[in-house]
Every structure is written in structure tokens, then in C-alpha cells.
Fold this sequence. Notes:
The protein is an alpha+beta fold. It folds into three domains: 3-37 and 406-438; 43-194, no CATH class; 214-396, Jelly Rolls (Sandwich). Helix content is 19%, strand content 41%. A hairpin with a 7-residue loop joins β7 and β8. The longest helix is centred in the last third of the chain and has 34 residues, at 405-438. The protein is extended and about 100 Å long. The chain starts with 12 loop residues before the first helix and ends with a helix.
Amino acid sequence: xxxxxxxxxxxxxxxxxxxxxxxxxxxxxxxxxxxxxxxxxxxxxxxxxxxxxxxxxxxxxxxxxxxxxxxxxxxxxxxxxxxxxxxxxxxxxxxxxxxxxxxxxxxxxxxxxxxxxxxxxxxxxxxxxxxxxxxxxxxxxxxxxxxxxxxxxxxxxxxxxxxxxxxxxxxxxxxxxxxxxxxxxxxxxxxxxxxxxxxxxxxxxxxxxxxxxxxxxxxxxxxxxxxxxxxxxxxxxxxxxxxxxxxxxxxxxxxxxxxxxxxxxxxxxxxxxxxxxxxxxxxxxxxxxxxxxxxxxxxxxxxxxxxxxxxxxxxxxxxxxxxxxxxxxxxxxxxxxxxxxxxxxxxxxxxxxxxxxxxxxxxxxxxxxxxxxxxxxxxxxxxxxxxxxxxxxxxxxxxxxxxxxxxxxxxxxxxxxxxxxxxxxxxxxxxxxxxxxxx
Length: 439
């Protein structure tokens, strides 16, 4: 007795299966789309570097408000973008104006994104009405360009906002305040910015790997909010799933730790990677090749073990590449600056901006930014190691197996819905068949 024995011959197998197929297909297509799909609007985070060399006109115009903090730059489907910022002017209070007129300027940027590069033009305007005791208004205008100097990738990005700001105003030319002259002052400026990119942002790219090869890496410890994004062909970096100690890490995967979270994962050769909170890495090569990792953001401890087999490893960062051969080190990627601290052995550190390399030994640290390598400095190995040891102890005490309950729950609901539908169909068929038999 099989399931199909319940199907009367006059109904036909095809006619019976077709509605079931339609229902199952609808559940597979529609239900996961609403439950799993994540399509946030494309955006790039722009963070301006601290710059104290602005001209006076720039500061007084309120343009400093533009280059303070971060931008969330929305990218449209065709690559175009627009950024409008309302700029308050704090030079004067409302009671200094005859009618209490508010002061507000407007900064407008229009541009395009193309293959990691941003290009655009901006304008600025601020009008200050005449004040009490001062019968003339002031006006500030500005224009310039916005562009990338380092294309935006999953590791980094950098660029410039530059142009000129002008002030037009009227000035008395005699002590009796009877004659005036119109004046215009212009000053140029240049602000730099970086993209603290994370794969939680759509612009972060994924590898187009047709075959998701097993990296043979597995988690030793998962504490707090740890996620994995499978970045192979057809998959998006924003599709994060909770990680557990049993999660299989594939080549091209992104691994991310949240706030107050950490993770430790290990390859077959016992090479160990320890991630602090707010860290993201990319597994970039299969184990049989030269090991390659990517550090998108955060702090990473590496204990590399392949020296006995003449193996090497490269870790790509925003501003530099670390060439490693059997050593222990710490890598940090923060705000567009890549930093290396060597605990044991020697690491070759290469600047992306200049191509210059330097050998860094135990107890030494060096950084790389958009201008190149910084001077080598000493650091306290014991203090650095103690900080990671403390994190390791916390991870072991709080390590969890993770949770895939949301996905499992959705899968269970789908399965129950399908099975329920089949049971109802079978019951109806049996009822009809028995009724005909009775007749």
C-alpha cells in the first residue's frame, strides 16, 4: 500500500499532483521571500577625517557642519546619488536680527557610483539677513567636487571633498558710515574621508565563486552575536545567518561579531583566528592553496602554524597587506587605518597606497593609511597578550552553540503547512472513494 493507492484512477496522477505542486511552489517562493529576504537600500558610510586646517571663511560659513561625523550616502539602482544637508549657522543668535530671522544654509551633492568609484559635484548657499546695528546682509556660497581617491571595496575606500567657499558682504568705508563698498572673499579647502565598510552594508562586495568550497575552518568558540554570510555566486553579503560551533565555513564567507561578542575559529593545521567584538573577516582561499584572509574591520589575533610545511599566509586589510610565515600577530582595521602588532616572529607589511614594504619584528607595531606606512613603534607584548587572554577566558565561559531557531521555525511552519495540505487532500480523496464504493 502506497500513497498513490489512495488516488482513484479516474482522477489521474497528473491532475492530482498539479495543485499540490502549485501550493508547494507558492510556499517555497512567497513565504521565504517575506521571511528571509533582506534588501535594504544601497548605501555607503562616509566618515570625514579630522582636519583643523580650514580657512576662517569655511568655519564661519557653517561648512564645517558638512564634514563632521558620518554620512549615510544612499545609492539608487542606476548608481546616482543625492545628498542634501541643512546647515545651521551659529555665528549669531536670533535676537540679533530685527525680525528674529533664522539662519540656515543648504549643501547639495549630486553624483554617480561606478565600480567602486564615486564622482560628484556640490553647491552650498547660506544667507544671513541684516542684523541689528548692521544694515547689510552677508551671504556665503560654495562649489566643488566629491570623488574617491581609493575605490570602495569590502576592505576600504577613501576620497576627497574639495572646492571653494566665498563670502560676499558690505563694509563701511568711512567713520561717519556714509559710504560703503561691496567685498568678496574666497578660500579653498580640501577634506578627506574614508569608508568604514562593513558587509552589513550593501556596497560591500561578495566573491563570485561558482563552487562554495569548504575552507575546512570550524569555530572553537562562539560568544554572543556571531554571524556568517555565504558570499558565493547569487548570494548577497547582507544575508547574515547566526553562527554555531557546527557551522561549516566556506571559501568566500564573511564572519562578523557584534557588540560584546567574540569568536575563535581554526583551520586543520591548527592556525587560529580570534575575533574581538565588532570585527569582520573574509575567508578568501581554500586550504590547499596559499592561505588568504581579509580583515574588513575590527581586531584580529592570528596564531599561524604552517611554518613547518613552508606555508605562507596573506591578510588583506584596508590600507595594507600582511605577509605571514609562522608567527603570532594582531591586526587592527579602524577608521581607514590598518595596524600590525607582532607578538612572535616577523611579518612583512606592505602599504597599498605606496607599495612600500617593511619587516616588522616581535614587539613592534606599524600602521598604514592613505599616505603610506607610519614609523615603526614599540609596544608591550605582555599587556597586549593579557588583553586577548582575558577575552579568550570570557569567550570560553560564555561560549554558546548559537541559535538557528528562526530559520528552523520557519522551515517547520512550511513543512507543517505542506503536510497539512497533503493530509487534507488524502482525507478528501479517501472520503470520495469510500462514498462511491458504498453506492
